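Re: the request from the purification team.
They wanted to know what the chain is likely to look like in 3D before they choose a buffer screen. I agreed to run a prediction and write the result into the notebook, where they can find it.
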Amino acid sequence: MDNLHHARLNASAMLPFDASTTIAKMMLDVAHLARGKGEPYRRERHIGPALELMYVMMTVLVATRDGKRIHASEIARRLDMPRTNVRRHLGTLVASGRLSVIGQSYAPTDYVNKDPAMQAVLRETVQIIVKAAQNLSGFL
């Protein structure tokens, strides 16, 4: 029996390795859900561009939550992503109705409030996160 399995048998609390595994599973499950059911992410042929697209959208959501707008160069800086990639992904998100262009900056639309399919994906995402949080409570 290796040390990890021996420690699991003798520990009453969750081990850091188990917490890391739970978090990794949650992140993979959310990414696969968005990639499989979320527009426009499922249109990407490969996981790399789909993940970049998700990161650009998430960055816009977080950066603009107080009603502010964000420029492509700021997104590129925050993500350490080439500006050409950011601009391509922004174009995809604008074309899909997720983002709007205001001058040279970007802001999210209220698409999620109007799209039942997107709301269903959001509910599934929350369920994945809640389950992971419940599993992680033994680590605190």
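For the purification team: The first strand starts at residue 70 and ends at 71.
Please add any questions underneath this entry.
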